[in-house]
Every structure is written in C-alpha cells, then in structure tokens.
C-alpha cells in the first residue's frame, strides 16, 4: 500500500508539471479568498467540516487516537483497533471498515504545491465525469486545504469502496503529501458512511 501511494504521489507531481502553464493564469486571477464562510479555490468553494447529527453520533464516546510520528489525531469508534502504525503509514480498523493513512515526503515539491493540488483536483473531477467518483470537492480539515473524493458504488458488493482526502503540508523539514483513505466493502458502505465521515471530519493535524 505504501509503495502504491508513493507512486500516486509521483503521478501527481508529473501531472502538476505538465499543467503549470495552463494553470498560471488561473493562479493569478483566483489568488484572493474570503476569510469568512466558505473560501474559493479556482472558482470552486472550499468546504469545511459540518458533520450531521448522525455523523457526530457515529463517533460519540469514541477514542482519541494520535499518530505521534506525524502529529495527526482522530476520534475513532471505541471498537476500532490498531492494525499497524509506522513512521509513514498508519492503519486502524473496526467491523470491516478501515482508516489507512500514508505520508509521502516530497522535498522538491514546495514551489509547485498549489499547481499540483489543482492538478489533483482536476484529475478527480475528470474521474467524476466518467463515473469513477460520485463526490469531488475542495475540503479543508483543521485549516489544511485538500481534495476530498468518494468512489462510486462498486460493481460487486465485496469490492472495496473508498472515501479519500489528499493534501500537501510542510512538516518535519519537508513537503509531504498526506493521503487519508477510509474504506469498507461497497455493499457495507451505506452502513458505515456516517462513521467514515465522522472520522474524516475529526482529523486534527500539525501544519
């Protein structure tokens, strides 16, 4: 999983470089943003967590879990257990659902983070048009803007369906791509959906 996510990170770097000229004018014309309400990014609103009552209830009385190596914290349901925690990867699970997070250090990315983020967003929007995703948005978690997207219902009930968020941050002396994946079987996704969104919106991170 870690190697695959690192490969995704490099793909986004290449895409960002290819889109540099295309997006420069967009960067100039959309550099301003509002400090109140929802902000704007390239003409699209940046959403902030606004969990529903059901999403809040799904993690109520949950456990606070901190990834010490990366300074990231979540509220997880009390029955979730640690699967693996390493310097650059983190996995907890419960009742057939999973939280998987990977950190990809990218020391040379600092100057093109905005362009790469826009390339990531545009790529996700393209995948939404062809039906791979049914939700794509700019989503700010704990003050860090990233791209949130949800896979569409899968062909088979046993296939994995993912809710993802990716963002760049400066941490521990380098630029990092943070990839957060909440997943379960497609057939069980509706049952876990409030729980997965509750966990996502509980994210707290140093940046």
What does this entry look like structurally?
This protein is an alpha+beta fold and 207 residues long. The protein has one domain: Protein Transport Mog1p, Chain A (3-Layer(aba) Sandwich). It contains 5 helices and 12 strands. A 9-stranded mixed β-sheet has the order 1-2-8-9-10-11-7-6-5, with helices on both faces.
Give the structure's gist in a few sentences.
The protein is an alpha+beta fold and 207 residues long.
What are its keywords?
207 residues; alpha+beta; Protein Transport Mog1p, Chain A; 9-stranded mixed beta sheet; 3-stranded antiparallel beta sheet; disordered N terminus
So what's the overall shape?
globular
* Strands ordered across the widest β-sheet: 1-2-8-9-10-11-7-6-5
Secondary-structure-derived class: alpha+beta
Beta-strand percent range: 35-45%
Helix % is 25-40%
CATH class: Alpha Beta
- If you consult CATH, what is the topology? Protein Transport Mog1p, Chain A
| The CATH fourth-level homologous superfamily | Mog1/PsbP, alpha/beta/alpha sandwich
Order of helices and strands: HHEEHEEEEEHEEEEHE
Number of domains: 1
Beta strands, count: 12
Strand count, sense and barrel status of the largest sheet are: 9 strands, mixed
- Uncertain segments are 1-37
CATH architecture label: 3-Layer(aba) Sandwich
If you average the pLDDT, what whole number results? 85
Rg from alpha-carbon coordinates: 17 Å
* Distance between the ends: 24 Å
How many DSSP helices? 5
């Amino acid at each position: 999983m870690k190697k695959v996510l690192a490969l995704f990170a490099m793909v986004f770097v290449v895409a960002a470089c290819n889109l540099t000229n295309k997006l420069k004018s967009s960067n100039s014309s959309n550099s301003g943003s509002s400090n109140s309400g929802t902000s704007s990014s390239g003409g699209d609103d940046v959403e902030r967590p606004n969990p529903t009552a059901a999403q809040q209830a799904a993690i109520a009385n949950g456990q606070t879990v901190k990834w010490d190596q990366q300074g990231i914290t979540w509220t997880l349901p009390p029955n979730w257990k640690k699967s693996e925690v390493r310097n650059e990867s983190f996995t907890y699970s419960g009742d057939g659902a999973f939280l998987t997070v990977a950190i990809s250090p990218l020391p040379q990315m600092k100057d093109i983070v905005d362009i790469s983020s826009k390339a990531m967003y545009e790529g996700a929007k393209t995948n939404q048009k062809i039906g791979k995703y049914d939700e794509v948005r700019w989503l700010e978690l704990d003050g860090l803007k990233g791209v949130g997207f949800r896979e569409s219902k899968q062909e088979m009930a046993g296939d994995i369906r993912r809710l993802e968020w990716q963002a760049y941050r400066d941490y521990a002396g380098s630029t990092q791509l943070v990839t957060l994946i909440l997943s379960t079987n497609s057939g069980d996704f509706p049952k876990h959906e409030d729980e997965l969104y509750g966990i996502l919106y509980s994210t707290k991170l140093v940046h």
